[in-house]
Design goal:
Length: 301
């Protein structure tokens, strides 16, 4: 199996796309692992399984129609397997088996055939004590951006990546610029919480980035990103972040998949020369993630 991911926007060749089959019973509010799921649960709008299945299969069809080889996890009864991004991630030609929060550990069983591939695959299992989920890892050629929590937020449910992870990735890639960004974390307020880095920023094309400034604890981090992308910032609001604007997905550096309801963002992208494949993803978004969260790219060219 070929592994090759050097950025978020090169032509996608192979990807693991999550499944929404049998994602289990409705939890109690206290058992929700993110505030957005809790928000919809408390408002009587917990995601419906059939709607989630329809949405993710429509996304699957878009990927296939664009020549992408799509792999699906092996189904596990009563387990949410939508968000494959977090359980593993690829940088260059290495696949990393992530250390997720305990509540998500079973999800990796659905992709064991990939993680245990013996034919020349380069795999690194993240050491114990280092917390990291793939949604916090964004690769941008010589840069690796990693979202993390600060010390006082480490025990929150939404703190999925710690600073030890930033140091570890630096050791693996000494010739890349590995940059850690402290994210705003809150277990109860979905408008004041960034679950993963890809919920507050997302590179598109060769030079653009969708970004929510309020997701960063340190203003200097936002300024740093602005310098890298030379002011090619597609800025979004707190409501846009809540809706999931930064979590679209690139098929290549000219084509993206976006939610059909993202009228403002889709218009901006079209004005900048992007082709936008639009599909509904509102039900899945209630779990706190969208298109990027649902995908584990294995190969881009």
């Amino acid at each position: 199996m070929n592994l090759n991911v050097v950025n978020e926007t090169n032509k996608l060749k192979k990807v693991v796309l999550g499944i929404a089959n049998s994602f289990g019973k409705i939890p109690l509010p206290g058992d929700c692992i993110d505030p957005k799921t809790k928000h919809y649960l408390n408002n009587g709008e917990y995601p419906l399984e059939n709607n989630c299945i329809t949405e993710i299969e429509n996304f699957n069809n878009i990927l296939i129609d664009n020549g992408v080889s799509v792999i699906r996890p092996k189904p596990i009864t009563d387990l949410n397997q939508i968000f494959t991004r977090d359980i593993a991630f690829v940088i260059d030609n290495i696949i990393f088996e992530a250390n997720t929060i305990a509540a998500r550990a079973e999800e990796k069983k659905g992709i064991l055939d990939i993680l245990n591939e013996e034919k020349g695959i380069n795999k690194i299992q993240i050491p114990k004590g280092i917390k990291i989920e793939g949604g916090d890892v964004i690769v941008n050629n010589n840069f690796i951006f990693i979202g993390c929590c600060n010390k006082k937020d480490e025990n929150l449910k939404v703190s999925r990546t710690n600073k030890k992870a930033v140091d570890f990735i630096k050791e693996v890639f000494p010739n890349k610029d590995v940059i850690g960004f402290e994210l705003v974390k809150n277990d109860n307020d979905p408008y004041n919480n960034i679950l993963h880095l890809d919920c507050t920023m997302q590179p598109v094309g060769k030079n653009d980035i969708i970004i929510y400034e309020g997701g960063f604890r340190n203003k200097s981090d936002y300024s740093f990103i602005n310098e890298i992308f030379r002011n090619n910032m597609i800025k979004v609001t707190s409501q846009d972040m809540f809706n999931g604007f930064p979590n679209i997905f690139s098929i290549n550096n000219k084509k993206v998949v976006s939610d059909i309801t993202f009228h403002k963002l889709n218009s901006i992208l079209k004005e900048r020369g992007y082709s936008v494949e639009k599909t509904m993803y509102r039900e899945i978004s209630k779990f706190g993630g969208l298109f990027r969260c649902s995908t584990l790219p294995l190969e881009r060219k």
